[in-house]
Write a structure and sequence with these properties.
Low-confidence stretches: 1-5, 195-201
Radius of gyration: 25 Å
Helix content: 40-55%
Order of helices and strands: HHHHEEEEHEEEE
Largest sheet: 8 strands, antiparallel
Amino acid sequence: MSTAKHISLFDTSILRPAMVDSLRKLDPAHLAKNPVMFVVAVGSFLTTGLCVRNAFVPSADAAPLWFAALTSLWLWFTVLFANFAEAVAEGRGKAQAASLKKMRRETNARRLTHGREERVPASLLGRGDLVVVEAGEVIPGDGEVVEGIASVDESAITGESAPVIRESGGDRSAVTGGTKVLSDRIVVRITASTGNRSSIG
């Protein structure tokens, strides 16, 4: 059974596009969405302008050129690093979503039909189908637990490493496709049809 691939923060397929995106995010329209970074960016432009002016038109009242240059560099570094961190987070999220969608297509489900189990591709599941999921297996689609209790690894979705308990009834019955059952056995009723199973699918 395939499981969701862990996406490293240092994956070059994420870092390289993030470097380009960090420059694209210097667009004032994008920076304006984050007031703090917008102010820092404005400060970066102003200090850079002052640094260039002091270099060509020295003034006795102006701060030393090295100080203005160092201040400008730190401000630009702050803006670019913030943009880079945001781009890395976006890239990692997209890669994780792509990995989950691929896994869903490859996952086989144990569908219950008139009390009998049959293995079918997860992509063929529809709203209302019942599926059996045991320890070590991946939940094939979004749904709710109608029988049993199990601990579920939802780190591929939430990023939380600690497993959660899912059981029938109450507010802990909802499960997400692509998560993995770590213990016991549950029966899940699929609540979203193929192509409309979650924000990831």
